Amino acid sequence: MRKLSFLALFSFVILQSFGQVWKPMDSKNSITDPKIAAADDGNVYIVGRIHGKTASAVLYKYDGNALSTIYTPDFTKIHNDVAIGLGANQLPIIAYSENGVAMVKQFDGKTLVDLSSESPAPKGFNYFKMATDKAGTPYVFYYHSSVFYVKKFENGSWSQLAESKGFMGDYRIAFNSRNEPYIAFKDKRFVKRIEGGTLVDVAPTYYKSSTSEFNIAIDNNDVIYICYSAFENGVLKLVKLEGQEWKPLPDPTSADYPNKGGELPVMAFDSNNNMYFSCS
User: Fold this and answer.
1) Cα(249)–Cα(38) distance, rounded to whole angstroms?
2) Residue 116 CA to its chain's centroid (Å)
3) What is the pTM assigned to this prediction?
4) Sign of the dihedral through C-alpha 247, 253, 259, 261
5) Residue-wise pLDDT tens digits, 133-147
């Protein structure tokens, strides 16, 4: 297991791993909950909200030398954190909600343009999120009236892939090699996939108690991994799915941070299927 090559922290420092040493590359202050996406051309894009200013956000690009502000959206009131993904052209796709309206926009190199004239979610949604698959296609996920929805952007509009009744709490998303979304839910610790227009369980719950921090990743062989915070001591645990059983792996933080937990765990895999891990 290796640490994540590029890491965005709350104070917003970009670090790059050189062997076992982290080298600071650049930093910005007062950015809340930054999100990061690394393009195939080596550019790294970061979006975040400006701390203390609910209507302000900023999009950065790191080109290997320095961080530069490439766009400051003219938001009026953001109701949730800003999400980022990469389109087929390797430019950022940004998702957020403004005045109760869900927005998904593509950065065209100069400004943000609407993917579609239609909103991907009706008003009254909750837990709105966006993710892009490996081909650069955006998907949106949200609750509405206690029903969970998954939609995909194709042929210029949003098409519904699945709906599932019942509130299952917060969630995280990962895609397999066939660009199929898998969703890990906080409540009852389920992992689900789409089948027949609804969500079905992939395996038994990965943890039998409550958890505050969790994430999902899928490697190049389509093996599913879950990292979660154990209720008993707050230590981050890592498991992988083998058949219908979750197999424990070494605790990802135990070597460097014994008896301590972590927040915001992130996992990723390179082309050689090496795992990268990060947490705060």
Assistant:
1) 27
2) 22
3) 0.84
4) negative
5) 999 999 999 999 999
